[in-house]
Amino acid sequence: MVDAIKFLIDFVLHIDKHLFEIVSKYETWTYLILFLIVFAETGLVVTPILPGDSLLFAAGAIAGSSGGLDIFYLMIILFIAVFAGDNTNYFIGNYIGPKVFEKNYRLLKREYLEQTRTFYAKHGGKAIIMARFVPIVRTFAPFVAGVGSMTYKRFIGFSLLGSLLWINICLWAGYFFGGLPFVKENFSLVVLVIIAISVLPIIIGIIRNRSRKE
Questions:
Q1: 0.85 exceeded by the pTM?
Q2: DSSP letters along 106-117, please?
Q3: In this predicted structure, what is the pLDDT of residue 149?
Q4: How far apart are CA 26 and CA 33, in angstroms?
């Protein structure tokens, strides 16, 4: 377990080198590998720690510099991965979620389900789009939307918009800026900055909640 965590940390911090090695070794099959990683990170509740923003940025950087990947193929394939993951997660939450709350547990109470439903009735669309840019949270947002009984017709529109924005912003950012000398020489630092910006909304939310309680 410890070794797996160390590998994941190293993979994320040096994702440009690892991804370049994958492209060199597997060539066209790299698109399938990226598809599976993005799908799992988006669609499976048990894999929220897989790289998302940094992976897309690195893929865009390789497409813009070495030419090992095609930016338009990436846009299409990864959009399908994200959208399919969102839908899978939604239906898992829709099918399993309510059953989890059929009985009251110490941490899982029916009142939480009702609160979730109320939250998504008011802020569901905005929450899904914003969560797309926040690590870990984006993995749970579609699941909670399904648990909260947001209608699929409403969910799919916001999912489409959020997926398009996330894929395009991250890929094109890597495509245009990933090849800059400073970025290439300090890629690990850039990845950390991307992660920090991504989790900033969570930190701000925690600080606001604490200040309100005080």
A1: no
A2: SS--HHHHHHHH
A3: 66
A4: 9
